[in-house]
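Encode chain A's predicted structure.
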Amino acid sequence: MVTQMTAIPRRLAGWLADREALPTAGRAALGYYAETGVFERESLELKRLVDRRMDAMIADAFDPVEDALAEAFDAESVEFSYDTKLTLPAELTLGQLYRTARERAVDGNDPVTLSVWADGTLDADLDDADAVGPIRFREPITTAEWEAGPETPQELVDRSEYLTRLVVAALVDGDMRDAINDAEYEDFGVSVDLEPGDRKRVAEIAQETLQSELEAAFERLPGEIREIYDWAVELSERHQDRDPHFRELLADAQAGDQDAGERIRKEYRDAPIEDLDAEIDLFDRVEELPYLKTQYARVGVIYDGMIEMYRRAGLPVEEAFKRSIVLAIIGAQIWLDDVDDFEADRAEGQLTPVTAEYVLVNDEDEAYDRIVAVSERYLDLASEFAAETDSPLAGIAAEYIRYSGDPSVLPGHRTA
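Encoded structure for chain A:
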């Protein structure tokens, strides 16, 4: 239910949102209200509920990992954790589908409350042959059954949760693989005492176990859901394969090679989305966004594929919602990660939109202003698409990203 926040004028809400002393989540909600004129308490409550269930799904995904680690290290039990920031889009999608299910409910029952995850854990024995609902498929559901879509609000909730549990595992698995490829093991947490070199072993066991569970889950789904996942991974890896080339361009540009700078502009900053050599129809209204092609391939495509998995499973996720998620993720990559990592990326020769701007222009103030403008453009568009699809959660998330950035670490930063 969308309600007017008449107690606080929008102008005051905008002023409060700019106060750094306030918690970021509160600033995001106020900023969203200042922009749209509506304040939705239900969305804030829904976010807390989704957060709890997402934690439960991640814990459920890690159960077999903990069993494998306990066996490998000859321990009675092992607690495992992995620090990842990649699950927010899945949370937002599940929240949006919960809203849709509630809107469709006409019998007075809340299908979200009746979820199998209602108590924060999977509320059934997966070995129970009498268990019902798509979370406990005994035989693969046919493509026709998926394409027919859920018949009731409760089935919509069940299918949405089933796909979200799968998507969470896929996102974490991909993040783990990237960390292992980069020999970054500090985010793999385990409760047993480790010898030198054991953390790599922990990481490999965790990723291999999660991947095995993921493969088994995909077997219970129509092939095209797996195909869209594989497509997204392949496109992302193809971009990663170009990293040495981009590093070489940055090194040459930093050494004063003007031709290298021009190539960064053409191949990295202003490259057309068509250069991906893939059928992409996501950006028909935002083709001129700087860094669109490279950042879509770098991070956006994974979430495009994620949303398409829901859509191809017959779940009602609108195109505008997908655009909001993808653009917000690209904005977050630039405004949060690339800004925070600027000094390290520049020292290590990593080409990002942020390191690129400081070699494309000679003036630090101008480079700073352009980074802020690019980031704002992505987040503004994410908010616009969120409003178009009536998703306050996605809109507030875009605002949260905006208020979480710290551009003061960049050369050229000026205080107001």
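The chain is about 65% helix and 0% strand.
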